[in-house]
Every structure is written in C-alpha cells, then in structure tokens.
Amino acid sequence: MEKYRALVLFGAPGSGKGTQGKFLSKVTNHLHISSGEILRDLPRDSELGKLFHGYMDKGELGPDDMMIEVFKEYIENLVSKGKYDPENQLLMLDGIPRTVPQVKLLEALVEVEKVVFFDVGSKEALMERISKRAAIEGRADDTSMSILEERMNVFEGKTLKVMGAYPKEKLITINAAQGPLFVLKDVLNHLTPLLAR
Question: Which helix (H) or strand (E) holds 171?
C-alpha cells in the first residue's frame, strides 16, 4: 500500500501542539490527528478502552504495537467514510509517535515529511499551561499533579528520544513560549510550501 504523508507535531504535554494542529487544520486542507483524542474516545467498557484508559489514568503510555494498530484502524475508518483523502491531505500527527519503537512501527504506514518540535523551554512553564488548560477543559489527565509529573517523566525519559530517530533535515524547532498566533506565524513561515500543496 502507499504510505500516508504526514507531519509530526512534537512537544511535551502543554507545548501547544494540539492547539497548533487545530489551527493548521482550519487554515489548510490537512487533517489534524490527536492520539490522545483517539484514545480518550475509546469506550471504557471495551477491551481496548479498559487497557488504554488504565495506562492514561496513571500518566503512562500503552503498548507500542497496540497503539499503532489503533491508529491504523482509525485512519482506515476515516478513509472508508470519506473523511480523509490520502491523495490530497497530509496527516498532522499530534501525540504519535511517542516512542522510538513507535517511529519504527509507523514507517510501514506513514511517510514523515517534517517533524515540528514545539519547544517551550521550561518544565515550570509547561506545568502552568496545563493547570490553566485543566481549569478550562476539565481533562482528567491534566487535573492530577502526580499524573502530570508522570507524563512529564515519560516525555523526558522516552518521548524526547523520538527526535533523534528522524534525520536532522526533517526537524524544525519552533519557539512555543510565544503566544499562539506568533507560534502559528513561525510554523507557517517554515511549512507553507508543504501545506499549500
């Protein structure tokens, strides 16, 4: 099969990658895919739902192979329903891949064109942002300080290594400590030729 073309939106929890993914999907024809939203939407009483919600409730990552399988089925479902056109749309991947093994497993499905790293700079700034998001959105994984600390530890211990799994020429670093519109401007400055295709 032909691989899906994709951008990876990469950053720590609270770095703004989800916000930027939503912005970009509104101003372009491309599709924002959030692994967190996919997993949170799994019914808690289903086998997969029990498994992944159990991990998320502790701030941990689920098994790599199962995550990629869930992602694959989700994308195939979008294609079959006419909600995603692989010929004309890029996937903007937010929250996947999160580990180096996931990078390797995704290679059979996805051709990553660029990896955009949203760099906030400090853990304290990230924690403050997430606290504000928790107050607005009421996400369970944002409200518990112990879960949040675990998610940050997972990012620093496992997810940060994902950047090293891609060639340097594919990496773009964005100063995500700026306001969202300035971040969007910087992203568009780097990616307009790719997104305008």
Answer: strand 171-175
* Cα gap 96→36, rounded to integer Å: 9
Round to whole Å and give the CA distance between 68 and 87.
21
Crossing angle (nearest 10°) for helices 145-157 and 123-137: 130
Cis peptide before 97 (omega within 30 of 0): yes
pTM, to two decimals: 0.87
Domain locations in the chain as residue ranges: 4-195
**Structural tokens at position 169:** 């020429």
Task: Quote the CA–CA distance of 170 and 112 in Å, as a whole number.
Answer: 8
Q: Which residues contact 31 (CB under 8 A, 6 or more apart)?
A: 25, 78, 83, 84, 89, 90, 91, 92
Residue (of 6, 26, 20, 19) closest to 187 by Cα position = 20
What class, spelled out in words, does domain 4-195 have in CATH? alpha beta
Asked if 60 and 154 touch (Cβ cutoff 8 Å), the reply is yes
Give the C-alpha separation, 176 to 185, whole Å.
Answer: 11
Tokens of 20: 């930027």
Burial label, 24 (beta-carbon count in 10 A; 0-12, 13-18, 19+)? buried
Query: What are 2-30's pLDDT values in tens digits?
Result: 899 999 999 998 899 999 999 999 999 89
Distance of alpha carbon 47 from alpha carbon 118, whole angstroms: 34
